[in-house]
Design goal:
Strand order of the largest sheet: 3-2-1-4-8-6-9
Structural class: alpha/beta
Strand content: 15-25%
CATH architecture of one domain: Alpha-Beta Complex
Number of strands: 10
Order of helices and strands: EHEHEHEEHEEHEHHEEHHHHH
Largest sheet: 7 strands, mixed
CATH topology of one domain: Spore Coat Polysaccharide Biosynthesis Protein SpsA, Chain A
Number of helices: 12
CATH superfamily of one domain: Spore Coat Polysaccharide Biosynthesis Protein SpsA, Chain A
């Protein structure tokens, strides 16, 4: 006779990838301490890509496990999730903070829906200044669309599809979603996570986009005919469709000042991508 699972054993592992994140890590850890899910029911694994600042020093004593490896976040996330040993995992970056009920709500959602394999978590961009408001306005249209990616996942489904493709370092979350969708449905929770982008810098923002652009080519080559990929790289969908579908046009047209800034950013990102192809 098979024994039932231990009700007091950890159910969720939070995997956070880092590289020189001493500025963001304390707030990330404080948000975990504030979770309504009892601390005994979740583990925290930090996978650090050879930081040269105080990242690992700040993590010690507040993590269940600390791994050091690179070269990119796909490999880091795979290592953390393979080491997790819990039925459910959530992968995050150190500049993200979970609102207090996220883990409890995600766990209840997947445990209550056996056919559901993963969840989107709504994302709110925080920081200072007009351009952060623009970034948050833009990001608010993406929840549970092909521009979004699931974060809370059944670990057995993740392992069954082989985890992240480590040859891809941009769009790797979109690529994982395509394979996970074959294992079951996706859902979305109400509780958000907060993505701290600090003080917006055009130079830093476009430099980051330029770095990731070449890997998008590899992602598109792997799934050239998939409907998600067609929409992710469609001028119509990225510039118009995602902001107008399902009644979202009302919110879009209610904020013309933010929409104007968003289109400037969209144009600059598009130009950066085309220049680096």
């Amino acid at each position: 006779m098979q024994s039932s699972p231990d009700p007091f054993a950890p159910r969720v592992t939070v995997v956070v990838t880092t590289r020189n994140e001493e500025r963001n890590l304390p707030a990330f850890l404080d948000a975990l301490d504030a979770q309504t899910l009892p601390r005994s029911l979740f583990r925290v694994i930090l996978v650090d890509n050879h930081s040269t600042d105080r990242t690992r020093e700040l993590a010690r004593g507040r993590m269940d496990e600390l791994l050091v490896l690179g070269p990119e976040r796909s490999a880091q996330r795979n290592a953390g999730i393979r080491a997790a040993g819990t039925p459910f995992v959530v992968y995050l970056d150190a500049d993200m903070r979970l609102s207090p009920n996220v883990l409890a709500e995600c766990l209840a959602s997947l445990e209550g829906h056996p056919g559901r394999v993963a969840l989107y978590i709504p994302e709110t961009v925080v920081g200072t200044g007009y351009w952060i408001r623009v970034r948050n306005f833009e990001r608010s249209f993406y929840d549970a669309t092909p521009i979004d990616a699931v974060r809370f996942i059944r670990r057995d489904a993740f392992l069954a599809v082989g985890g992240f493709d480590e040859s891809i370092y941009a769009g790797e979350d979109w690529e994982l979603d395509i394979r996970l969708a074959a294992k079951g449905s996706f859902g979305i929770v109400r509780s958000p996570l907060y993505h701290d982008e600090g003080a917006f810098s055009f130079r830093r923002y476009l430099k980051k986009k330029a770095y990731y652009s070449p890997s998008f080519t590899d992602y598109r080559a792997k799934w050239p005919d998939h409907p998600n990929v067609r929409r992710q790289f469609s001028v119509w969908y990225r510039f118009f469709g995602v902001f107008l579908e399902n009644g979202k046009w009302r919110r879009f047209f209610a904020h013309p000042f933010l929409a104007a800034g968003m289109y400037l950013l969209r144009f600059l990102v598009g130009a950066t991508y085309l220049r680096r192809r």
